[in-house]
TrEMBL record, chain A:
<feature type="transmembrane region" description="Helical">
    <location>
        <begin position="149"/>
        <end position="174"/>
    </location>
</feature>
<protein>
    <recommendedName>
        <fullName>Signal peptidase complex catalytic subunit SEC11</fullName>
        <ecNumber>3.4.21.89</ecNumber>
    </recommendedName>
</protein>
<keyword id="KW-0645">Protease</keyword>
<keyword id="KW-0472">Membrane</keyword>
<keyword id="KW-1133">Transmembrane helix</keyword>
<comment type="function">
    <text>Catalytic component of the signal peptidase complex (SPC) which catalyzes the cleavage of N-terminal signal sequences from nascent proteins as they are translocated into the lumen of the endoplasmic reticulum. Specifically cleaves N-terminal signal peptides that contain a hydrophobic alpha-helix (h-region) shorter than 18-20 amino acids.</text>
</comment>
<dbReference type="InterPro" id="IPR001733">
    <property type="entry name" value="Peptidase_S26B"/>
</dbReference>
<comment type="similarity">
    <text>Belongs to the peptidase S26B family.</text>
</comment>
<dbReference type="GO" id="GO:0006465">
    <property type="term" value="P:signal peptide processing"/>
</dbReference>
From TrEMBL, chain B:
<keyword id="KW-1133">Transmembrane helix</keyword>
<comment type="similarity">
    <text>Belongs to the SPCS3 family.</text>
</comment>
<keyword id="KW-0735">Signal-anchor</keyword>
<dbReference type="GO" id="GO:0006465">
    <property type="term" value="P:signal peptide processing"/>
</dbReference>
<comment type="function">
    <text>Essential component of the signal peptidase complex (SPC) which catalyzes the cleavage of N-terminal signal sequences from nascent proteins as they are translocated into the lumen of the endoplasmic reticulum. Essential for the SPC catalytic activity, possibly by stabilizing and positioning the active center of the complex close to the lumenal surface.</text>
</comment>
<protein>
    <recommendedName>
        <fullName>Signal peptidase complex subunit 3</fullName>
    </recommendedName>
</protein>
<keyword id="KW-0256">Endoplasmic reticulum</keyword>
<keyword id="KW-0472">Membrane</keyword>
<keyword id="KW-0812">Transmembrane</keyword>
Length: 178, 167
Protein backbone atom coordinates (compact mmCIF):
# COMPACT_ATOMS: atom_id res chain seq x y z
CA UNK A 1 0.00 0.00 0.00
CA UNK A 2 2.83 2.26 0.91
CA UNK A 3 4.48 2.22 -2.54
CA UNK A 4 1.15 2.93 -4.30
CA UNK A 5 0.62 6.07 -2.28
CA UNK A 6 4.17 7.15 -2.96
CA UNK A 7 3.84 6.75 -6.71
CA UNK A 8 0.50 8.61 -6.74
CA UNK A 9 2.12 11.46 -4.84
CA UNK A 10 5.01 11.60 -7.27
CA UNK A 11 2.68 11.70 -10.28
CA UNK A 12 0.67 14.46 -8.65
CA UNK A 13 3.78 16.47 -7.98
CA UNK A 14 4.96 16.17 -11.60
CA UNK A 15 1.63 17.42 -12.92
CA UNK A 16 1.62 20.24 -10.45
CA UNK A 17 5.15 21.19 -11.42
CA UNK A 18 4.25 21.17 -15.12
CA UNK A 19 1.20 23.36 -14.74
CA UNK A 20 3.14 25.68 -12.46
CA UNK A 21 5.99 26.09 -14.96
CA UNK A 22 3.45 26.64 -17.74
CA UNK A 23 1.78 29.36 -15.70
CA UNK A 24 5.15 30.97 -14.99
CA UNK A 25 6.06 30.85 -18.70
CA UNK A 26 2.80 32.48 -19.70
CA UNK A 27 3.19 35.06 -16.97
CA UNK A 28 6.67 35.88 -18.29
CA UNK A 29 5.34 36.45 -21.80
CA UNK A 30 2.53 38.69 -20.58
CA UNK A 31 4.72 40.70 -18.21
CA UNK A 32 7.49 41.21 -20.78
CA UNK A 33 4.87 42.47 -23.27
CA UNK A 34 3.64 44.85 -20.56
CA UNK A 35 7.22 45.96 -19.77
CA UNK A 36 7.90 46.72 -23.45
CA UNK A 37 4.65 48.70 -23.77
CA UNK A 38 5.19 50.71 -20.57
CA UNK A 39 8.87 51.22 -21.46
CA UNK A 40 7.85 52.64 -24.84
CA UNK A 41 5.41 55.00 -23.10
CA UNK A 42 8.27 56.26 -20.90
CA UNK A 43 10.72 56.69 -23.79
CA UNK A 44 8.35 58.31 -26.28
CA UNK A 45 6.43 60.43 -23.78
CA UNK A 46 3.22 59.51 -25.57
CA UNK A 47 0.42 57.73 -23.75
CA UNK A 48 -0.08 55.48 -26.77
CA UNK A 49 3.28 55.01 -28.58
CA UNK A 50 1.92 52.82 -31.38
CA UNK A 51 -1.35 53.42 -33.21
CA UNK A 52 -3.10 51.67 -36.06
CA UNK A 53 -4.54 53.77 -38.88
CA UNK A 54 -8.26 53.08 -39.18
CA UNK A 55 -9.53 55.58 -41.74
CA UNK A 56 -8.76 56.61 -45.30
CA UNK A 57 -8.43 60.31 -44.52
CA UNK A 58 -4.63 60.35 -44.92
CA UNK A 59 -4.46 58.36 -48.18
CA UNK A 60 -2.24 57.79 -50.06
CA UNK A 61 0.33 58.39 -47.29
CA UNK A 62 -1.25 56.17 -44.68
CA UNK A 63 -3.65 53.40 -45.48
CA UNK A 64 -5.99 51.45 -43.26
CA UNK A 65 -3.96 48.87 -41.34
CA UNK A 66 -0.68 50.76 -41.31
CA UNK A 67 1.13 51.28 -38.02
CA UNK A 68 2.44 54.61 -36.80
CA UNK A 69 5.06 55.15 -34.12
CA UNK A 70 4.41 58.21 -32.02
CA UNK A 71 6.70 60.49 -30.11
CA UNK A 72 5.60 63.40 -28.01
CA UNK A 73 8.76 65.07 -26.71
CA UNK A 74 9.02 68.65 -25.53
CA UNK A 75 9.47 70.18 -28.99
CA UNK A 76 6.80 72.69 -29.92
CA UNK A 77 4.10 71.58 -32.35
CA UNK A 78 4.58 72.94 -35.87
CA UNK A 79 2.68 73.05 -39.14
CA UNK A 80 3.10 70.00 -41.34
CA UNK A 81 3.53 67.51 -38.54
CA UNK A 82 1.22 64.54 -38.43
CA UNK A 83 -0.35 64.36 -35.01
CA UNK A 84 -2.70 62.01 -33.22
CA UNK A 85 -5.30 63.82 -31.21
CA UNK A 86 -8.39 63.24 -29.12
CA UNK A 87 -11.50 65.33 -29.52
CA UNK A 88 -13.91 65.73 -26.61
CA UNK A 89 -16.88 63.46 -27.16
CA UNK A 90 -15.08 61.03 -29.48
CA UNK A 91 -13.41 57.91 -28.17
CA UNK A 92 -11.31 57.08 -31.26
CA UNK A 93 -8.21 59.26 -31.73
CA UNK A 94 -7.64 60.90 -35.12
CA UNK A 95 -4.41 60.98 -37.17
CA UNK A 96 -4.22 64.20 -39.21
CA UNK A 97 -1.78 66.87 -40.34
CA UNK A 98 -1.32 70.29 -38.75
CA UNK A 99 -2.01 73.10 -41.23
CA UNK A 100 -2.18 76.16 -38.98
CA UNK A 101 -0.32 77.08 -35.81
CA UNK A 102 -0.68 80.13 -33.57
CA UNK A 103 1.65 80.21 -30.59
CA UNK A 104 1.05 82.69 -27.78
CA UNK A 105 3.84 85.11 -26.92
CA UNK A 106 3.26 85.17 -23.15
CA UNK A 107 2.03 81.68 -22.19
CA UNK A 108 3.50 79.64 -25.04
CA UNK A 109 0.13 77.99 -25.57
CA UNK A 110 -0.49 76.70 -29.08
CA UNK A 111 -3.65 76.83 -31.13
CA UNK A 112 -3.58 74.40 -34.03
CA UNK A 113 -5.85 73.43 -36.87
CA UNK A 114 -5.58 70.05 -38.57
CA UNK A 115 -6.68 68.48 -41.83
CA UNK A 116 -6.57 65.02 -43.36
CA UNK A 117 -4.51 64.93 -46.56
CA UNK A 118 -7.33 63.15 -48.34
CA UNK A 119 -10.14 65.32 -46.97
CA UNK A 120 -11.35 68.35 -48.91
CA UNK A 121 -12.00 70.45 -45.79
CA UNK A 122 -10.16 71.16 -42.55
CA UNK A 123 -11.12 69.43 -39.31
CA UNK A 124 -13.36 72.07 -37.69
CA UNK A 125 -16.34 69.86 -38.55
CA UNK A 126 -14.78 66.97 -36.60
CA UNK A 127 -14.02 68.99 -33.48
CA UNK A 128 -16.44 69.36 -30.62
CA UNK A 129 -19.29 71.81 -31.14
CA UNK A 130 -17.97 75.37 -31.12
CA UNK A 131 -14.34 74.27 -30.85
CA UNK A 132 -12.15 76.16 -33.31
CA UNK A 133 -8.63 75.12 -32.31
CA UNK A 134 -6.85 72.12 -30.85
CA UNK A 135 -4.52 72.69 -27.92
CA UNK A 136 -1.59 70.78 -26.53
CA UNK A 137 -3.68 68.67 -24.14
CA UNK A 138 -5.68 67.25 -27.04
CA UNK A 139 -2.54 65.90 -28.71
CA UNK A 140 -1.40 62.36 -27.90
CA UNK A 141 1.75 62.41 -30.01
CA UNK A 142 3.28 63.10 -33.39
CA UNK A 143 3.98 60.40 -35.94
CA UNK A 144 7.70 59.79 -36.48
CA UNK A 145 7.82 56.32 -38.02
CA UNK A 146 5.74 54.13 -40.23
CA UNK A 147 5.28 50.41 -40.85
CA UNK A 148 2.80 49.20 -43.47
CA UNK A 149 0.18 46.43 -43.11
CA UNK A 150 1.16 45.22 -39.62
CA UNK A 151 -1.89 46.81 -38.05
CA UNK A 152 -4.27 44.52 -39.93
CA UNK A 153 -3.74 41.97 -37.14
CA UNK A 154 -5.46 44.20 -34.60
CA UNK A 155 -8.17 45.31 -37.03
CA UNK A 156 -9.03 41.67 -37.74
CA UNK A 157 -8.85 40.77 -34.06
CA UNK A 158 -11.20 43.55 -32.98
CA UNK A 159 -13.49 42.70 -35.92
CA UNK A 160 -13.95 39.04 -35.02
CA UNK A 161 -13.01 38.15 -31.45
CA UNK A 162 -13.00 34.39 -32.23
CA UNK A 163 -9.60 34.80 -33.91
CA UNK A 164 -8.34 36.51 -30.77
CA UNK A 165 -9.27 33.46 -28.69
CA UNK A 166 -7.68 31.12 -31.24
CA UNK A 167 -4.41 33.07 -31.00
CA UNK A 168 -4.51 33.03 -27.18
CA UNK A 169 -5.16 29.27 -27.35
CA UNK A 170 -2.21 28.77 -29.71
CA UNK A 171 -0.02 30.76 -27.32
CA UNK A 172 -1.07 28.45 -24.47
CA UNK A 173 -0.22 25.37 -26.54
CA UNK A 174 3.20 26.73 -27.53
CA UNK A 175 4.14 27.65 -23.98
CA UNK A 176 3.01 24.26 -22.66
CA UNK A 177 5.59 22.44 -24.81
CA UNK A 178 9.14 22.34 -23.61
CA UNK B 1 11.23 18.59 -29.98
CA UNK B 2 10.87 18.35 -33.76
CA UNK B 3 7.10 18.59 -33.93
CA UNK B 4 5.24 20.51 -36.65
CA UNK B 5 4.31 23.31 -34.28
CA UNK B 6 7.88 23.77 -33.16
CA UNK B 7 9.20 23.99 -36.71
CA UNK B 8 6.42 26.35 -37.81
CA UNK B 9 7.20 28.57 -34.85
CA UNK B 10 10.92 28.67 -35.71
CA UNK B 11 10.17 29.39 -39.37
CA UNK B 12 7.77 32.26 -38.59
CA UNK B 13 10.18 33.76 -36.06
CA UNK B 14 13.01 33.70 -38.61
CA UNK B 15 10.78 35.18 -41.32
CA UNK B 16 9.59 38.04 -39.13
CA UNK B 17 13.14 38.77 -37.94
CA UNK B 18 14.49 38.91 -41.51
CA UNK B 19 11.60 41.15 -42.60
CA UNK B 20 12.12 43.50 -39.65
CA UNK B 21 15.86 43.70 -40.42
CA UNK B 22 15.17 44.48 -44.07
CA UNK B 23 12.71 47.24 -43.10
CA UNK B 24 15.25 48.72 -40.69
CA UNK B 25 17.98 48.64 -43.36
CA UNK B 26 15.69 50.25 -45.95
CA UNK B 27 14.90 53.04 -43.48
CA UNK B 28 18.56 53.51 -42.53
CA UNK B 29 19.60 53.67 -46.20
CA UNK B 30 17.60 56.94 -46.45
CA UNK B 31 20.34 58.60 -44.40
CA UNK B 32 22.80 58.11 -47.26
CA UNK B 33 20.79 60.46 -49.44
CA UNK B 34 21.57 64.17 -49.00
CA UNK B 35 18.94 66.10 -50.99
CA UNK B 36 19.60 69.46 -52.64
CA UNK B 37 16.14 70.92 -53.23
CA UNK B 38 15.44 74.41 -54.55
CA UNK B 39 12.35 76.60 -54.50
CA UNK B 40 11.12 80.04 -55.57
CA UNK B 41 7.86 81.70 -54.66
CA UNK B 42 6.47 84.96 -56.04
CA UNK B 43 3.46 86.81 -54.73
CA UNK B 44 1.89 87.97 -57.99
CA UNK B 45 -1.12 89.77 -56.61
CA UNK B 46 -3.02 90.62 -53.44
CA UNK B 47 -6.55 89.83 -54.64
CA UNK B 48 -8.31 91.27 -51.65
CA UNK B 49 -7.54 92.21 -48.07
CA UNK B 50 -10.23 92.90 -45.51
CA UNK B 51 -11.44 92.59 -41.95
CA UNK B 52 -14.00 89.96 -41.07
CA UNK B 53 -16.98 90.79 -38.89
CA UNK B 54 -15.29 89.12 -35.87
CA UNK B 55 -12.24 91.40 -36.19
CA UNK B 56 -9.85 88.93 -37.82
CA UNK B 57 -8.12 90.06 -40.99
CA UNK B 58 -8.14 87.91 -44.07
CA UNK B 59 -6.09 88.24 -47.22
CA UNK B 60 -6.18 86.44 -50.56
CA UNK B 61 -2.98 86.05 -52.57
CA UNK B 62 -2.07 84.80 -56.03
CA UNK B 63 1.17 82.85 -55.95
CA UNK B 64 3.72 81.40 -58.32
CA UNK B 65 5.42 78.41 -56.76
CA UNK B 66 8.27 76.65 -58.49
CA UNK B 67 10.39 73.95 -56.90
CA UNK B 68 12.69 71.09 -57.75
CA UNK B 69 12.43 68.32 -55.17
CA UNK B 70 13.67 65.46 -57.33
CA UNK B 71 16.76 64.81 -55.21
CA UNK B 72 14.55 63.80 -52.29
CA UNK B 73 13.34 60.61 -53.84
CA UNK B 74 15.07 57.37 -52.90
CA UNK B 75 13.97 53.79 -53.38
CA UNK B 76 12.26 53.89 -49.96
CA UNK B 77 10.17 56.99 -50.73
CA UNK B 78 6.44 56.52 -51.03
CA UNK B 79 5.56 60.17 -51.49
CA UNK B 80 6.60 63.67 -50.57
CA UNK B 81 4.08 65.98 -48.96
CA UNK B 82 4.95 69.59 -49.70
CA UNK B 83 3.29 72.74 -48.43
CA UNK B 84 3.83 76.47 -48.41
CA UNK B 85 3.21 78.33 -45.17
CA UNK B 86 3.13 82.02 -44.35
CA UNK B 87 5.03 82.58 -41.11
CA UNK B 88 5.06 85.81 -39.09
CA UNK B 89 5.19 87.21 -35.59
CA UNK B 90 2.58 89.41 -33.95
CA UNK B 91 2.49 91.18 -30.56
CA UNK B 92 0.14 88.47 -29.24
CA UNK B 93 1.66 85.43 -30.92
CA UNK B 94 5.35 84.53 -31.07
CA UNK B 95 4.68 82.39 -34.12
CA UNK B 96 1.89 82.18 -36.64
CA UNK B 97 2.05 79.48 -39.30
CA UNK B 98 -0.69 79.53 -41.87
CA UNK B 99 -0.63 76.91 -44.59
CA UNK B 100 -1.49 78.49 -47.95
CA UNK B 101 -1.04 75.65 -50.38
CA UNK B 102 -0.10 71.98 -50.25
CA UNK B 103 0.39 69.07 -52.57
CA UNK B 104 1.31 65.41 -52.67
CA UNK B 105 4.14 64.40 -54.99
CA UNK B 106 3.76 60.72 -55.78
CA UNK B 107 6.92 60.18 -57.83
CA UNK B 108 10.20 61.67 -58.96
CA UNK B 109 8.73 62.59 -62.36
CA UNK B 110 6.33 65.03 -60.69
CA UNK B 111 8.90 66.52 -58.31
CA UNK B 112 9.83 69.45 -60.54
CA UNK B 113 6.87 71.77 -60.85
CA UNK B 114 5.65 75.29 -61.42
CA UNK B 115 2.25 76.14 -60.01
CA UNK B 116 0.19 79.26 -60.44
CA UNK B 117 -2.49 79.39 -57.77
CA UNK B 118 -4.47 81.43 -55.27
CA UNK B 119 -4.11 80.35 -51.65
CA UNK B 120 -5.87 77.01 -51.17
CA UNK B 121 -6.47 77.55 -47.43
CA UNK B 122 -7.74 80.81 -46.03
CA UNK B 123 -5.07 83.22 -44.83
CA UNK B 124 -6.72 84.53 -41.65
CA UNK B 125 -4.89 86.16 -38.78
CA UNK B 126 -5.81 85.73 -35.11
CA UNK B 127 -6.69 89.39 -34.75
CA UNK B 128 -5.82 92.29 -37.03
CA UNK B 129 -2.07 92.58 -37.37
CA UNK B 130 -1.64 92.04 -41.09
CA UNK B 131 -1.53 95.63 -42.41
CA UNK B 132 1.99 96.29 -43.69
CA UNK B 133 3.09 93.01 -42.10
CA UNK B 134 6.39 91.47 -43.14
CA UNK B 135 6.21 87.72 -43.43
CA UNK B 136 8.21 84.69 -44.53
CA UNK B 137 7.05 82.13 -47.00
CA UNK B 138 8.39 78.71 -46.07
CA UNK B 139 8.28 75.66 -48.26
CA UNK B 140 8.10 72.62 -45.99
CA UNK B 141 8.30 69.02 -47.08
CA UNK B 142 7.64 65.75 -45.30
CA UNK B 143 9.06 62.64 -46.89
CA UNK B 144 6.87 59.62 -46.28
CA UNK B 145 8.85 56.40 -46.60
CA UNK B 146 7.61 53.02 -47.78
CA UNK B 147 8.70 51.91 -44.34
CA UNK B 148 10.57 53.42 -41.40
CA UNK B 149 11.44 56.92 -40.32
CA UNK B 150 9.79 60.03 -41.77
CA UNK B 151 11.88 63.03 -42.75
CA UNK B 152 11.04 66.73 -42.83
CA UNK B 153 12.84 69.90 -43.79
CA UNK B 154 12.13 73.37 -45.20
CA UNK B 155 13.34 76.32 -47.23
CA UNK B 156 12.62 79.74 -45.72
CA UNK B 157 12.09 82.64 -48.11
CA UNK B 158 12.08 86.07 -46.50
CA UNK B 159 11.16 89.61 -47.43
CA UNK B 160 7.46 89.51 -48.30
CA UNK B 161 5.19 92.31 -47.18
CA UNK B 162 1.43 92.80 -47.10
CA UNK B 163 -0.10 96.12 -48.21
CA UNK B 164 -0.94 98.90 -45.73
CA UNK B 165 -4.48 99.41 -47.04
CA UNK B 166 -7.48 97.07 -47.30
CA UNK B 167 -8.52 96.34 -50.85
Amino acid sequence: MEWIRESVDSIKSIQLRQTLSQAVNLGLILTSALIIWKGLICITGSESPVVVVLSESMEPGFQRGDILFLHMGKDPLRAGEIIVFNVDGRDIPIVHRVIKVHERQDTGEVYILTKGDNNPEDDRVLYAQGQRWLQRHHVMGRAVGFLPYVGWMTIIMTGNPIIKYIIIGALLVITSKD
Amino acid sequence: MHSFGYRANALITLGVTVLALMCAMASLSDNLNSPTPSAQVQVLNVNWFQKQRNGNEEVSLTLNISADLQSMFTWNTKQVFVFLAAEYETPKNSLNQVSLWDGIIPSKEHAKFLIHTTNKYRFIDQGSNLQGKEFNLTLHWHVMPKTGKMFADKIVMTGYRLPEEYR
